[in-house]
Amino acid sequence: MKKRLIVAATAVAAALAVPCAPTDVIAEKSAPTAVEHIFTHELIYDTARAFSPSNRLRDSFDKDHMTAKEFSALLSSLYEKDYVLVSTVDAAVGDITLAEGKRAVALSFDDMTYDTVGRGCVDKIVFDGGKLSDYTRDAEPQVTRCRENVTILESFIEAHPDFSHNGARATICVNGYNGILGYRVTPSSRVSDERMAEDTAQCKKTVAAMKALGYEFASHTYYHKYFDGMSAADIERDLDLWDKYIRPIVGDTRVLCFPSGLHNAKAAKFAAYGRHGFDIFLCVGSGATDYERGMTNATFVYRKPMDGTALRLYRKQYSHFVDTAEIYDGTRHRPFSYKGGYY
After folding, report:
1. By the 8 A CB rule, do 104 and 96 touch?
2. Region 138-156 average pLDDT
């Protein structure tokens, strides 16, 4: 493939996250557009639960997640600042050309496992009544389109169809260790065979509906273990499990998203990814190494995290996207002035 390198315009520290109308019509073509890449994890919709002192995960939630309110405000700000949503894969393998004055942004959503039921995140993504929706068993109403990244994005595009270029949606980066999208589709989910079969069938329908809307899927590895700490045998096993249980549901993909963006491309074990069909790699941080720039069979995409930590630390660096202080959810348990980093 033609080698291209997509690098986020602003360096950031490595981080550990109403039917669609016709797309953007190009009246005047300009030079190929640089693409900004942003990612989130699952959103927090119930901040009282997520940030409760009784929730042992509240620090992690505060550090690594956005709230639904913040994500909605982010989309509005991107739209007001003339950003247009583009495909991650299209941006990696070809030039993106937009109408004059428009700026390109690609979104990716990491993890998307929903293995913290009852702690302030939704339970699963469903296709309900012909629309992509989010489901939470112990909430009222149980089904909405305003609690999770994909459903908020769908609602936003329905209201602002020109935000999506050529039908672009986000890239969904899924693990496998406890299923995907809230469905327990793998043996490591520790559910009965009957439950796993039922969830697999339902998940396939939801994924098909998402792909029909324009969502792309990527591997976020099976176990969400860090590449740098894994042996070659560990990586092969992880790849085999993802291929066996997740690829049959989401389909073939050439995109792999490194957990926390951590990787060492020089390692010989890196070649295993190519053997499994991956040649576009989603990373986090300050940009590509000289070694990566010299690779002709892989594209490294560097993304900016959008989470509680980034909102507090990167107000100046993210000002071209959004005023992070303005959208900061005041129901978080840490004030905006808190300067603690990812580690």
Report:
1. yes
2. 97
Cα 60 versus chain centre, distance: 17
280, two tokens = 């576009």
In one-letter notation, the amino acid at residue 5 is L
Contact 64, 310 (CB under 8 A): no
Q: Give the Å distances, CA to CA, from 157 to 20, 165, 181.
A: 6, 10, 21
Residue 305's φ and ψ, nearest 5 degrees, are: -75, 145
The pTM (predicted TM-score) of the whole model is: 0.89
Q: Find out whether the peptide bond into 248 is cis, omega within 30 degrees of 0.
A: no
Q: Tokens 């969502």 correspond to what residue? A: 215
Two structure tokens written together for 42: 């699952």
Tokens of 157: 């595009």
Distance CA 58, CA 64 (A): 10
Q: Which two tokens stand for residue 75?
A: 């989309």
**What single-letter amino acid sits at 28?**
E
| Cα 220 to Cα 227: distance, rounded to the nearest angstrom | 11
Tell me the C-alpha to C-alpha distance, in Å, between residue 18 and each of 42, 142, 145.
Answer: 21, 18, 9
Residue range 46-64, pLDDT digits in tens: 999 999 999 999 999 999 9
* Residue given tokens 């797309």 in the structure block: 23
DSSP H or E run through 325:
helix 324-327
Q: Do the bridges between strand 83-85 and strand 124-128 make them parallel or antiparallel, or are there none, so unpaired?
A: unpaired
Kindly state the tokens that stand for 116: 């913290």
Q: What whole-number distance in Å separates Cα of residue 135 and Cα of residue 130?
A: 14
With beta carbons less than 8 A apart as the criterion, state whether 283 and 301 touch.
yes
